[in-house]
Amino acid sequence: MSLMGNMMHMPLMISSLLTHAARHNGDVEVVSKRVEGDMHRSTWAEVELRSRKLAQALGRLGLEAGDRVGTLAWNGYRHLEIYYAVSGSQRVCHTINPRLFPQQVAWIVNDAQDKAIFVDLNIFPLVEKLAPTLPSLKHVILMCSRENMPRETSLPHLLCYEDLINAEDGNYEWPSFDENTAATICYTSGTTGNPKGAVYSHRSTVLHAYASALPDAMNVCSADTVLPVVPMFHVNAWGLPYSAALIGCKLVFPGHHLDGASLYELFEQEKVTFSAGVPTIWLGLINHAKQNNLKFSTFKNTVIGGSACPPAMIRTLQDEFGVQVIHAWGMTELSPLGTLSRLKAKHAGLPKEQKEAILAKQGKGIYGIDMRIVDANGQVLPWDGKSAGDLEVRGHWVVAGYFNVDKSPLHNGWFPTGDVATIDADGYMQITDRSKDVIKSGGEWISSIDLENVLMGHPAVMEAAAISCHHPKWDERPLMVVVRKQGAEVSKDELLAFYKGKIPNWQTPDDIVFVDEIPHTATGKIYKLKLREQFKDHKLPTA
Ligand code: ADP
């Protein structure tokens, strides 16, 4: 007979992260650049008190356990309070990306059946316009104080955030309940079909917070000042609002001010040590710093993920700015962290270029995530760094299904990510492509990420995207779409010559076109679908 452990059982509650932060690091600051334009300073203790008051207010509004409460908001202290008040009181926090097309926002609110929605001032016009198409919505709460409320509005149920808080006394105890209860919902961005809701539990969120803070993961601690550039509507800012409470560090929120100059100022002013965001954001910040000959005085580490981080960007941040990049891979269905690139002890003596090559990969699975690669027949492929296959994962914070969808996405208990990858003998995973983005030339696959990474290393190139283009003989061949740096001159032939020796010859792109701008998705990734659409009639010179 087995012997049972004799330990306390405490369900893993999201509210416990906040009460821990308030109790042990209550005076640590939470600083926000507000939509109103000014800076706001708060602390973990204050955030906890105001979250309790907000939880009381949610009850007063008649919102029940399990009810979905939406947010359309930038990164800021009120959004943080909503995260904790909604989930902590057993309701479900549903963050929505305001950069999506309005019809998509409406579709998502209706799918989730949000009963209330919290909105930042400058996103309010969108909600006012959409409100007649959102029948489930009972309350719209504007995230501001009384003096910023609009004088006139078409919404009869418009409420003021600070009024709601001021009406409560905070005499509220965070409830304890089944840790598998839904805490938050994030929708995938739906670049292929309708968005799908991933429903995270308290348990999955707390475990993700534990794992993501580890030294081999994000490596953040209470001595850090963390500025999540990644929005709180993009997979919960990669879990930082939770892991920051767990470690009790200072948090700095940039609001919607994400241009290079505003970010740089905030990094310096608040002595930020750690950040996280998609590669596109860093393009802006690096450019601003270079153009103005600026250096960072405290910024030391950043996680970059969401799409492949070009090795040239990792090198620039490290060599010119002293910022170490932690390349990470993940997705909405993984809450989002899956792998992070970190060196092992045995790599310590390697030459710089070899270390860089390892760190450029998407990295090792953190404990809590298992992965494998399979071929088209579902056969498991070896971890040899060469065999490329469909990447599948399973683990404590991986979805088992989608909200309102009966069909399971799983494949024999594994979640198929839609990414194509290799895994080497040391466990480092490298994404070659999203399966729908790979370029199929004859029977061979060409990695669009490899082609982009080469050009991103060219001094005249600001941004590069590789897409497949129809070819009568090879079916598909690579076409590069390139944005040149401001004032930089470079020709197509020079760029094609730049590929020599960096990739196998047969993979060299067939053509290069220069554009003023590359389209991005609502989460700041290169919008390949749109690019392919844009260049669908492009005639390759080799055709
Ligand atoms: P969406 O892009 O549809 O908004 P996600 O934000 O969940 O959805 O994106 C997940 C996808 O982003 C992954 O499946 C992968 O294709 C891509 N991705 C994320 N991080 C990386 C990375 N470091 N390198 C390459 N691709 C990445």
Can you describe what's shown?
- Helices cover 29% and strands 24% of the residues.
- It is an alpha/beta fold and 543 residues long.
- Among the domains are: 244 residues, 3-Layer(aba) Sandwich (Rossmann fold), CATH 3.40.50; 96 residues, GMP Synthetase, Chain A, domain 3 (2-Layer Sandwich).
- The strands form five sheets. The chain has a nine-stranded mixed β-sheet, sandwiched between helices. Strands 7-6-5-3-4-8-9 form a seven-stranded mixed β-sheet, with helices on both faces.
- β23 and β24 form a beta hairpin.
- α1 crosses α3, α2 crosses α3 and α7 packs across α9.
- It binds adenosine-5'-diphosphate.
- The site of adenosine-5'-diphosphate (ADP) has 22 residues, from β14, β19 and β20.
